[in-house]
Amino acid sequence: MRVGALEAGGTKMVCAVAEVDGKESWEILDRISLPTETPEKTVPAMLSYFKGKGIEALGIACFGPVDLHKDSPTYGCITTTPKLEWAGYDIVGIFEKELGIPVGFDTDVNGSLLGEAYYGCARGLKNSIYITIGTGVGAGIMTNGQMLHGMLHPEAGHITLHRHEKDADFQGKCPFHDSCLEGLAAGPAIEKRWGKKAADLADVPEVWEMEAYYIAQALVNFILVLSPEKIILGGGVMHQEQLFPLIRKEVSRQMNGYIKTAQMENLDDYIVGASLGDNQGILGACRLALEAL
Ligand code: ADP
Ligand code: ZN
């Protein structure tokens, strides 16, 4: 079945057309990436991309916060985003109206997790979590086979963390919280603390030791609360492959033997990178399109 997929991000909009079935097969036929400007500029360009492509449904995995409650008057809208031109924008409504096809909708991180859960390394699992560490930090959560939405949707990037002993005086980057995961560990926080872009700090061990300390602390909390069967880490900062062994070691140290499961015995298989080569978000959006049908 031919579907459209939109990975709507704060910096870029990735639009794709794919052939997917309800099981495991997928082929991305075409894709474009557009800078995220204003809705007036960017939405018509996306509409003209999708029009005439023969798609039967569209899935949107969107930056947020977004309204996911089907019975809410503002369902399908981006809500209080700091990208002010998009605040309150009815992104689902415009595509439904202009394309005349069903539109599926979820957060960007739930989209990435859906991709991994149907086509990637979390296939067959009913409880998994995808954490992106990039410009911000976000988590998509599947619990008992369902994407977790709840009151709003998880905003797990903003959980409070203990400071690293050498980081007591750093003023974090989150305007809302003194000591949250995003404010201490997203790409902009690394750049602010160390005075260089994260990608240019690859050979400074203290940077990654501290980063692993924060990410591991978050993972320990997620493990204790959500009991995931797989933890997937993505986003620009996780391009630093040396983080993975540091994070696993630190999770083990902080958990201190409290949880004994097969997964905790084999952290190489439990805490992993995204498996779909940056297609997870688009493939998750394809799943959202299938679900909308
Ligand atoms: P976004 O979160 O905006 O969708 P990314 O996931 O690419 O995009 O995250 C961008 C952030 O990741 C930036 O803060 C950047 O400094 C950081 N980043 C990008 N590439 C790397 C890299 N190779 N190593 C470390 N950090 C990186
Ligand atoms: Zn915060």
Descriptive report:
The chain is α/β, with parallel strands linked by helices. The chain contains 10 helices and 10 strands. Helix 3 (108-119) crosses helix 10 (280-292) and helix 6 (205-226) crosses helix 7 (243-255). Bound molecules: adenosine-5'-diphosphate (ADP) and zinc ion.
Q: Can you give me a brief rundown of this structure?
A:
The chain is of the alpha/beta class.
Which terms summarize this structure?
35% helix, globular, alpha/beta, 293 residues, 10 strands, binds zinc ion
The fraction of residues assigned to DSSP E strands is 15-25%
Indicate the structural class: alpha/beta
Bound molecules: adenosine-5'-diphosphate, zinc ion
Sheet with the most strands, sense and barrel status: 5 strands, mixed
Distance between the termini: 11 Å
Helix content: 25-40%
Mean pLDDT: 97
Count every helix, treating DSSP H or I runs of 4 or more residues as helices: 10
Radius of gyration: 19 Å
Low-confidence blocks of residues: none
The helix-strand sequence is EEEHEHEHEEEHHHEHHHEH
DSSP strand count:
10
